[in-house]
Design a protein that fits this description.
The complex is a heterodimer of chains A (about 160) and B (about 200).
Chain A (H helix, E strand, L loop, with lengths): L9 H18 L3 E6 L4 E6 L9 H21 L8 E4 L3 E7 L4 E8 L4 H24 L8 H15 L2
Antiparallel strand pairs in A: 1-2, 1-5, 3-4, 4-5
Chain B lengths: L2 E3 L4 E9 L6 H11 L9 E4 L5 E14 L2 E9 L7 H7 L5 E7 L5 H17 L9 E6 L9 H8 L7 E3 L8 H14 L5
Parallel strand pairs in B: 2-5, 2-6, 6-7, 7-8
Antiparallel strand pairs in B: 1-2, 3-4, 4-5
The chains are: A alpha+beta (about 160), B alpha/beta (about 200).
The structure holds guanosine-5'-triphosphate and magnesium ion (MG).
Chain lengths: ~160, ~200
Amino acid sequence: MVEPSLVLYGALYQRAMDVLQETLQETGARYALFVDRKGFVLAHKEALWAPKPPPLDSLATLVAGNAAATQALAKLLGEARFQEVVHQGERMGLYVDEASEFALLVLVFDDNAPLGKVKLHGKRAAETLARLAEEALANPPKLNLDTQYREEARALLDELFGN
Amino acid sequence: MSTINFANREINFKIVYYGPGLSGKTTNLKWIYSRIPEGRKGEMVSLATEDERTLFFDFLPLDLGEVKGFKTRFHLYTVPGQVFYNASRKLILRGVDGIVFVADSAPNRLRANAESMRNMRENLAEYGLRVEDIPVVLQVNKRDLPDALPVEMIQAVVDPQGRFPVFEAVATEGKGVFETLKEVSRLVLARVGST
Ligand SMILES: Nc1nc2c(ncn2[C@@H]2O[C@H](COP(=O)(O)OP(=O)(O)OP(=O)(O)O)[C@@H](O)[C@H]2O)c(=O)[nH]1
Ligand SMILES: [Mg+2]
């Protein structure tokens, strides 16, 4: 089975954004990301008061790598999966939970956000996002990218990577 | 396969540099990072050991620009080539759109090249993929070595049927690096919308 593309758009995307927004409000977290297991950001929200986030590409990649390694460890030990992960430093923390087999929820929070709330609302959000992911996979959109896309992209390749 | 975000109008592709330990995968990414202008690249992330061997992966995001209203991005990864890191190497292949196989021209690495290719087939198979399903470009690196093996000899062990486009390279000097990247990108893009 080829890894399916998880494509979020239209109403599903909006619902995912709403879930992230609510979760930020309920937990007091700084950033909320919905990330696929390959490490691509599907949707993200930042609290209005939060400072500029670190590069989200890097964050998503590392979280996905970490989650993949954790899952492999679980398998080695004969477990289907491990629970959510929380990493906590002195000021900042990271909450990662699985949202279906194909995606992850990531919350970045600081010491103003109570951990209990992060975990409680994080879990709920992950469950909702898991359902959204499954819906998205069940209804993949038709991609109307034609030869014109390929030709334009090729011109850009020349520009960026040289002739 | 490619990750498409209609809401943000983004298309993302994952390209993985595979090959035996010390063949020059990380060197390829470092060269690319050093040559791509600011604004078209993100941070390069390297999870490496003290002695600069890749432990989990290197990661470099590149921004191709906007194509028909879609921001088009390439995420480049390298795997750890050392044999005993197979568990993590396998994880990096998840969702791959294109592969650059970096082979080493040193005579004493001929067997390592062949084993790495076999290992790649096995790891892809775990995701239900065959090498034939994915664009693969063969980069024969370290052409500057005085005792570099003939390209045909390396090709004969990693790709006896001659399926993959081949590029000779000296990654430390950037020779062949962008040619390789451009070809794999072209092949990956060629599949967009065709399925
Ligand atoms: N002579 C020569 N040396 C090279 C070339 N490319 C890379 N090297 C050297 O080979 C060594 C290993 O390069 P890396 O890029 O770290 O190799 P790697 O494939 O990432 O290795 P792993 O991370 O262990 O899988 C370094 O010392 C490089 O400088 C080349 O074209 N010619
Ligand atoms: Mg390396």
